[in-house]
Amino acid sequence: MYQDKKVVFSGVQPSGVLTIGNYLGAIRNFADFSEEYHCYYCVVDEHAITVRQVPADLRRRTYETLALYIACGLDPEKNTLYVQSHVSAHAELGWILDCYTMFGELSRMTQFKDKSAKNADNINAGLFTYPALMAADILLYQTDLVPVGADQKQHLELTRDVAARFNQVYGDTFVVPDPYIPKTSAKIMSLADPTKKMSKSDENENAVVRILDPRDAIIRKFKRAVTDSGSEIKYAEGKDGIMNLMSIYSAFTGKTMDEIEREFDGKGYGDFKMAVGETCADALAPVQAEFARLMNDKAYLEDVMIKGAEAAARDAARTMSKVRRKIGFTDPRRK
Ligand code: ATP
Ligand code: LTN
Q1: Known catalytic residue: 197?
Q2: Which residue in the list 118, 153, 197, 326 is annotated as catalytic?
Q3: Backbone angles phi, psi at 151, to 5 degrees
Q4: What is the pLDDT of residues 31-44, one digit of tens each?
Q5: What is the pLDDT of residue 59?
Q6: CA distance 281 to 300
Q7: Which class for 148: exposed (0-12), middle (13-18), buried (19 or more C-beta within 10 A)?
Q8: Cβ proximity of 115 and 51 under 8 Å
Q9: Which ligand is nearest the CA of 139, by number?
């Protein structure tokens, strides 16, 4: 559809301040695709309202998430950066795909089960149909590749199934996308409970390291990270806490687990945690500086949002017109 280049699409919810899980599992990898692919990176605010949001916070975080995209190396000239609710085709195709997504399929989604348990007083229909809207995000742009963390694999499989089902009924309409899940750091775990995913909406601040946390907070959180009662820095079954810290250290330094074990041979957990904290803080410092600069230039961020939404809407319209025609919607203005 887009001439010579294949298409990449991904999204992040403005549902909280981003964590190093979002950074290492997703955003940090986005810029790798900018040259070879036609890339869309979206701030998915419509997904965020499946959980109750304070309007002023949602607004601020939408700007912040866009600023973080840019601070993490995404050049708005080379990537289409925009906000989901600015392009009405997402909600429009979302509704249509609701009608091609089965109740049974949605019931099996682990994210739905987790979020229902966490938000027992607000299990709304949007939380349930969330994956159909996510499929719409992706399929609107004839996406080939979707870089995401491991937790999104199931949603990607559903997207593929919905695309294939639609194509089977109506003939080739959508490209069936592949996930791109990084080999290391696809699932950064909570520092308070290393059997649980680190999540930006976690209420326990000690469980998450946020991209924007000050240096001393980052170091303090790593120092307090839950580990086992042993003392050896070893990547081994049953040492979930240490394995998670080693993955984080490896992701920031590029060192292998063997190299890390050798580096900390004879040293204790205290030394290792300090090293992880310092390395993480060092790596995030330039992102934080660029973020601060961008947040002071709201006019620039708004310009990026407007241009991005215009470009995305133009591209999405091509898929929408095809979808409408195939389904049998009337279009009296079309000659
Ligand atoms: P929430 O807590 O609001 O559900 P989240 O932290 O899970 O949010 P999302 O906005 O849903 O973050 O995800 C953005 C991207 O970050 C997705 O590609 C997701 O797979 C990835 N991601 C989220 N958490 C982690 C993690 N702990 N490790 C690796 N990747 C992650
Ligand atoms: N569901 C994702 C966020 C998301 C997304 C997308 C990711 C919404 N639409 C499209 C990739 C492609 C999440 O919860 N992390």
Answers
A1: yes
A2: 197
A3: -65, -20
A4: 999 999 999 999 99
A5: 98
A6: 27
A7: buried
A8: yes
A9: 2
